[in-house]
UniProtKB/TrEMBL annotation:
InterPro entries given in the database record: PORR_domain (IPR021099), PORR_fam (IPR045040)
Sequence ranges of Acidic residues compositional bias: 467-488
Any one Pfam family match given in the protein's UniProt record, by short name: PORR
GO molecular function terms attached to this record: RNA binding
Superkingdom per UniProt: Eukaryota
Stated name of the protein: PORR domain-containing protein
Species classification: Eukaryota, Viridiplantae, Streptophyta, Embryophyta, Tracheophyta
Annotated PORR domain residues: 52-387
Annotated segments matching region Disordered: 432-488
């Protein structure tokens, strides 16, 4: 009995059960069996894992947080008749987006390369408009967006082919149109202009518009990971059997990889699976082997979904819109955490409420490995945001000095008059004709009447600054029910 008491303490057995040796022996056998069972399952990837931070992607999202705010102000300014807006009215409209009072003025002051504040010549009040560089960046992005409409057609066809029914809800595509590089009028410029590829219809069950692919093209049923495997095989000469079903795995810094975890990844890499564009309706999915293949197919589907985006990233909420149509798991975040070597989940940008999924193999040192024109145009906005405010003052002086016309001549004459009068004053002061001290006549200080916030992040991001709009949040709640009726 004395030998069995330590084991009883480990199992937290009550003192009243000490005398029952059979009860203790059964628990000891159960304890040994569970240890053996856990060791036998150690060669499978754990279901729950902690997220390891990668500061490179998180810093990218910190910049993207400012970009999302800048885009909101740009939309407000561009929506005005003359593309200019009074500061007081801008502050009122910004409060509807979740900003606090006087926070709009403090925000635009931090980005002088994008926004310009000037005094109206007649009304004598402060107005805001986009700078010359800001307008050029918007024009460049619009040109890149129009130039890649054929590529948008190609991406939309592959996106519809990823769906098991070949159709997706139009509103879900509209919400994620910026990520997939679709123009604002994609319903007319892409869908209705190509009736040989797409069909737009209203579903009676859900009373929503759906986009359906007319015919599946076998030439498009090639995933990005398959092309990458072929490239690795031809360039490096890797054994085709070893990389036939494998993915590129690159774990974040600080990720602990044990011996059994390496074995689990090695087994998972060689596990066969059905391709995302393959029809699995005729397969029996009840066996354990079929479920494992479907899990790996879900990884391949999300991999292909991210490969179709412009910046190889997509928010978790956007992916959830396509969950039923593409047979993705319910708990997407826990599912993606099992494969941190392939995807990275960043929670930066909205106090942990926004989850952005990155395709790790597409980035290197914070930049896309294969950039496109639309990505480069959007990157220009990030460069303008990160530029120093001091450089904006220098650029403004250089731009003003290069202007021609009557205004330039008037400024030249006025400057000559000021110089001629100031020479006599300085001459008298130099020889002590006037005994008074010299005063700084250029010490005029003008304020904008705006309370400047000193915090780095201008204003705490509230629910109004979320990446999801009110309309989109309602769609998240109702999309699963609507798609379920349609699939039936």
């Amino acid at each position: 009995m004395q030998l069995l008491k330590p084991f009883a303490r480990i199992l937290k057995i009550n003192h009243n059960h000490y005398q029952n040796q059979t009860f203790i022996a059964e628990h000891l056998l159960y304890y040994d069996f569970t240890c053996f069972r856990l060791m036998s399952q150690s060669t499978s990837i754990p279901k729950k894992q902690q997220r390891v931070r990668d500061h490179g992607y998180d810093n990218y999202m910190e910049v993207h947080k400012k970009i999302r705010k800048v885009l909101k102000f740009q939309d407000i300014i561009l929506g005005q008749p003359n593309k200019t807006i009074c500061i007081s009215r801008l502050d009122i409209l910004a409060r509807r987006l979740g900003f606090k009072q006087h926070e709009a003025g403090a925000f635009i002051l931090k980005f002088p390369h994008v926004f310009e504040i000037y005094e109206h010549p007649v009304q004598r009040i402060l107005y805001c408009r986009l700078t010359r560089k800001g307008n050029l960046q918007i024009e460049q992005e619009n040109l890149a967006l129009q130039a890649q409409i054929p590529d948008a057609n190609f991406r939309l066809r592959k996106l519809l082919m990823l769906s098991k029914t070949g159709r997706l809800r139009l509103e879900h595509i509209r919400i994620a149109r910026l990520e997939f590089g679709l123009p604002e009028d994609f319903e007319f410029s892409v869908i209705l202009k190509n009736p040989q590829y797409f069909r737009l219809f209203d579903a009676k069950e859900t009373r929503s518009k759906y986009v359906e692919i007319v015919e599946r093209d076998p030439t498009l049923a090639t995933c990005a990971i398959e092309k990458l495997r072929e490239k690795e095989y031809r360039e490096r000469g890797i054994d085709a059997e070893n990389i036939r079903f494998s993915f590129i795995v690159n774990f974040p810094p600080g990720f602990k990889i044990g011996k059994y975890y390496k074995i689990a990844v090695w087994k998972w890499q060689r596990l066969p699976y059905w391709l995302p564009y393959e029809d699995v309706s005729n397969h029996d999915l009840r066996s354990l082997e079929a479920q494992k293949r479907m899990e790996k197919r879900a990884v391949a589907t999300i991999h292909e979904l991210l490969s179709l985006t412009v910046e190889k990233k997509l928010s978790l909420e956007r992916i959830a819109h396509f969950r039923l149509a593409m047979d993705l798991p319910k708990k997407l975040k826990e599912f993606l955490l099992q494969h941190q070597g392939i995807f990275y989940i960043s929670t930066r940008g909205n106090h942990g409420k926004l989850h952005t999924i990155f395709l790790r193999e597409a980035y290197r040192k914070g930049e896309l490995v294969e950039p496109n024109e639309l990505y480069l145009a959007r990157r220009k906005l990030a460069e303008l945001i990160l530029l120093s405010p001091k450089k904006a003052a220098v650029d403004r002086d250089l731009f003003d000095s290069g202007r021609d016309g009557e205004d330039g001549e008037r400024r030249k004459i006025r400057r000559d008059c000021v110089d001629s009068t100031s020479v006599g004053f300085m001459f008298e002061h130099k020889f002590g004709v006037d005994g008074g001290q010299e005063e700084d006549s250029d010490s005029e200080t003008g304020t904008l009447g705006i309370d400047v916030v000193q915090d780095e992040d201008l204003g705490s991001e509230t629910g109004g600054d979320s990446d999801l709009t009110d309309e989109e949040s309602n769609l998240v709640e109702t999309s699963d029910e609507d798609d379920t009726h349609l699939c039936k």
